[in-house]
Amino acid sequence: MKTSLSERYITATINELPAEMHDDVRAELEASIADAIMARIEQGEVRETAERAVLTELGDPSLLAANYADRPLHLIGPRYYLTWWRLLKRLLVIIPPIVFVIVAFAQVLAGGNIGDILAEAIVATISTILHVCFWVTLTFVIIERSGGDLGISWSVDNLPEPQDARRGKGDFIASLVFIGLMLAALIWDQTRAFIRIEGESVAVLNPELWPWAMISLIGLLVLEAIFALVLYTRGGWNFLMAAVNTLLSMAFFSWFITLLVRGELFSEQFTNLWSDNGVHEDNLYTLAVIFGFGIAVISIWDMIDGWVRATRSNRSAESKCGALAT
Fold first, then answer.
1. What global pTM score does this model have?
2. Helices in 43-154 by DSSP H: which ranges?
3. CA distance 177 to 126
4. How many of the other CB atoms lie within 10 Å of CB of 95?
5. pLDDT averaged per 10 residues, the chain (length 326)
6. What is the Cα–Cα distance from 111 to 94, expressed in whole angstroms?
7. Structural domain boundaries in the chain
8. Who contacts 62 (Cβ-Cβ below 8 Å, separation ≥6)?
9. Which InterPro entries match (predicted)?
């Protein structure tokens, strides 16, 4: 004898439930399905048609079973979604850039060429991003499924302070001043030089970097000025601006670290100043480490600062939208 659609539906539903729920759910479904079918038959429908329509309205047995068991059908529900998303963004802003710079710097110390440095740093960064996304998400999935409580709740104390428009103007002016000083320093170093020994000018940067390497550096400074202008015009940070800022910071880091690894960054006259007492190579190595570490710290700080500001601006926008909605 062929099993009815109703019996097949009920069996499919209870098979996804704990054994102790089988009898109660079966009895409830048998009664509710029979009543719904009978109501349709009384309205003139054929039994087979009525049965199919009732079961179709009930939907997927797995979904119905999840409702009976109060089991979520999502990785992370609305209760923890915002906490997960905010934590994930914060970790992705901080950890991957740090890994990129540390791995690149370690390759510099190991004497690797520029190809090895970038390859190792990029691979390590991508791997870090995947690990951060996976482990953070897995942690919240476990918390969601186990019914744990993070003890995190929103309160009015979380509301951000209003942004002062004058602060944005001050940042814009400071950025332009800094960029102007950088350009002036480049020109002065190559024309007048900051170091003079016995009346002779000693340039810090290698004059052979002109024109193409220096033009690329000047181009990056111009892009920084354009970025500062766009940031000021739009009135604040967002995640797109933070991403562009990260790319610019990584471009500056790559420019300096590439020339540093190749030994092409400093002028020969400047490096000769470090060759006293027959320890030329050790002194140059120390100089490269100090300079590279300084560039790495500045790049990481700039990237993190941009993402932090973007996150604060996003929270402020969400609060304003919430206030307007109420």
1. 0.50
2. 47-58, 61-69, 78-109, 114-146
3. 35
4. 15
5. 77 84 85 87 86 85 80 72 80 77 65 68 85 86 72 53 54 76 79 70 81 86 88 80 89 86 79 57 64 80 84 65 48
6. 26
7. 5-69, 78-153, 162-325
8. 12, 16
9. Perm_prefix_1
